Amino acid sequence: MSLNTVMNDDQTNKDENLNVDSLLDQLKTIPMLGQKIEEQSDEITKNNLEDFVMKYAGKLIKNASESVDYVKEIVQSAPTPDDVLALAELVKSTSSALDILNKIIINDKKMDTSIKIKTMDVESRKEELETKVDAAFALTRDEMLKRLIADSKIIEANVIDDQSKS
Questions:
Q1: Rounded CA separation 70/91 (Å)
Q2: Contact present, 90 and 66 (Cβ < 8 Å)
Q3: 71 in Cβ contact with 87 (< 8 Å)
Q4: How far is CA 102 from CA 54, 62, 109, 146, in A?
Q5: 42-101, pLDDT tens digit by residue?
Q6: Which spans in 78-160 are helix H?
Q7: Which pLDDT score, from 0 to 100, does residue 18 have?
Q8: What percent of the chain shows pLDDT beyond 90?
Q9: Is the Cβ–Cβ distance between 33 and 70 less than 8 Å?
Q10: Long-range CB contacts (< 8 A, 24+ apart) of 93-99?
Q11: For residues 71 and 90, is the Cβ–Cβ distance under 8 A?
Q12: Model pLDDT for residues 94-131, shown as the tens digit of each residue
């Protein structure tokens, strides 16, 4: 072996060690994918369904957004067709989830508005009915008096004064 070969081997070993160290540093900075997943004991019932959907939809969107950022960094550093496709699918699914969550919120607001409008409508009809009933009672009283006067007969009466006989 020549001295150049030994020096080249030493340089190659140093380069490999630097590459390994660099790779280890990169791996340390990547978020732990194997973190312990918390046990979820949330039971889904009719009463908590809305809260469950909102809670986990929010988590899903947050995680998907973080994944988009992570895959975006990978694509920017060394783009491959598979990585670009994965990024596109992540963006598509995240925007779809956001759109669905937005529709749920809009639907909730429409329902609240609809309930308020219906309540106002019922109250206005109730007031209108009370006004008609009051007017009908007043009209009935007037009509009753007119009928009593029109139907009245003159009664002839002989008034006897009891004091004059005594």
A1: 12
A2: no
A3: yes
A4: 11, 15, 11, 65
A5: 677 878 888 888 888 888 888 888 888 888 888 888 888 888 888 889 889 888 888 888
A6: 81-151
A7: 66
A8: 13
A9: no
A10: 93/64, 94/61, 94/64, 94/65, 94/68, 97/57, 97/60, 97/61, 97/64, 98/61
A11: yes
A12: 888 888 888 988 998 999 999 999 999 999 999 888 88
The number of CA neighbours under 13 Å toward the Cβ of 25 is 6
Query: pTM for the full model?
Result: 0.48
| Token couple for 45 | 């019932």
AA letter at 120: M
User: Is pLDDT of 143 > 70?
Assistant: yes
* Tokens 């909730």 found at: 108
